[in-house]
Amino acid sequence: MEKFKIWLRKNWSxxxxxxxxxxxxxxxxxxxxxxxxxxxxxxxxxxxxxxxxESASESxxxxxxxxxxxxxxxxxxxxxxxLKGKVVFINFWASWCPPCRAEFxxxxxxxxxxxxxxxxxxxxxxxxxxxxxxxxxxxxxQYSVPFLVPEAxxxxxxxNGSLPTTxxxxxxxxxxxxxxxxxxxxxxxxxxxxxxxxxEQ
Length: 201
Hints:
Elements: H1 2-10, H2 12-26, H3 28-39, H4 61-65, E1 69-71, E2 77-79, E3 87-93, H5 98-114, E4 120-126, H6 131-141, E5 149-150, E6 165-169, E7 175-180, H7 188-199
Parallel strand pairs: 3-4
Antiparallel strand pairs: 1-2, 1-5, 3-6, 6-7
């Protein structure tokens, strides 16, 4: 024991780093906190694509052939195919996923900022195997974003299994952003891009 105390006195900085590393490996909340510091830099953020001019003969197979179907807590089914004319923010997440936990405060802030805007729809889709785990997480963290689950199989165009994944559809139903991994959705620069989408005809 005495040898350990001597080693600790000489290597206290190493001991602290090892302790921090162990906490980060064991605690999902600690991992989420560290990841939150990383995403706050904005380096991992994806940008919404500019609107492209199309000829009358061009079609949009993404908007026409692919549909995401989700169910809310009231049992109502929402289809992206029925949301034309609105900007749709889709986020696939799970309660056990540290990157999802890291970006969730920014999603909540984004939701709070735009929840009264009738032209913007939030589809925050829980991918937990046990649905109640997602509900417990939202309640524990006091998040009020909509809780939705897939009603049918999710088209790979929207979600290929990586969490978190965020997709933004414009008013015509086109995918204008598809981002795999965590990001910060509470930055003014992102709000400016959303506002541009909302004003597009």
